[in-house]
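During the no-cost extension, the postdoctoral fellow (Dr. R.K.) reprocessed legacy sequence entries with the updated structure-token encoder. One reprocessed record is reproduced below for audit purposes.
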Amino acid sequence: MLYQAPDEKARQAFHQGTSRYAYRMLGAHPITQDGERLWHFAVWAPNARKVSVTGEFCAWAYEQYPMKKQHDGTWELRLPDRLFTKESDPARFNYPDAEAKLRTYKFAVLTQEGSWHLRADPFAFRAELRPNNASVLYD
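Re-encoded structure tokens follow.
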């Protein structure tokens, strides 16, 4: 499902608990910007100090891809699709299931108390099977 930026009415409906379409504004959605395929990530974490997107693509580094906090407590970030492919670093991603692992992600959330927590995307369209629990990019 391609990302469509929410208008203020859609954001208000989400915050009032009356939206049936929160999945359209939150989660990971493919978009095309200036001819390049990107992934738009969004999560609602109003009390977080910082939020980042992390995964195998960045060796699970918590602060490498920080998200930007919006006025309503959602955090957003766009990353190029090429980051999630073996071609981004063929030497590093030369193991058998690299293609699948590179499509996984989680949100790294820094709490007000200063501790980091990894969280799966509650609006992900796909997730890994047990015992793994990361979210998976899926169009």
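Helices lie at 8-16, 22-25, 98-101. The beta strands are 27-33, 36-44, 50-54, 68-69, 74-80, 104-110, 116-119, 135-136. The remaining legacy entries will be reprocessed before the final report is submitted.
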